[in-house]
Amino acid sequence: MATSAVEEKRRILIVDDDRDASHLIKILLEKNGRYVVLEENDAARAHQSARNFRPDLILLDIMMPGTDGGDVAAQIEADLDLQRTPIVFLTRAGHES
């Protein structure tokens, strides 16, 4: 029975260059017990991580250095195996003093 419960867990990939933010989201989602979460903190590796992990949902930071969230989303949407994977964009844009 335990294996069927694991199989029912939804897979979520978090792509965010902020390790603290992605780890907090991972902890909160996994605490629920219904999700298996993978963190990817390097946007350049996000597409390959998605191919390997096969997530049911991707939480994607839109503003990252180098390869931004828009670039990552375009790579995923161009991939026939991943193009139907829902993507939710995240951002923490705000005023810095």
Compose a concise summary of this entry:
With 97 residues, the protein is an alpha/beta fold.
Q: How does this model look, in words?
A:
The chain is 38% helix and 22% strand. The protein has 97 residues and is an alpha/beta fold. It is globular. A four-stranded parallel β-sheet has the order 2-1-3-4, sandwiched between helices. The termini are far apart. It has helices at 2-7, 19-31, 46-53, 69-78, and strands at residues 10-15, 35-40, 57-61, 87-90. Helix 4 links the parallel strand 3 (57-61) and strand 4 (87-90). The chain is built from four helices and four strands.
The average pLDDT value, as a whole number, equals 90
Taken from the alpha-carbon principal axes, the silhouette is: globular
Number of E-state strands: 4
Which runs of at least 5 residues are low in confidence (pLDDT < 50)? none
Strand order of the largest sheet: 2-1-3-4
Query: What radius of gyration results from the CA coordinates?
Result: 14 Å
Helicity range: 25-40%
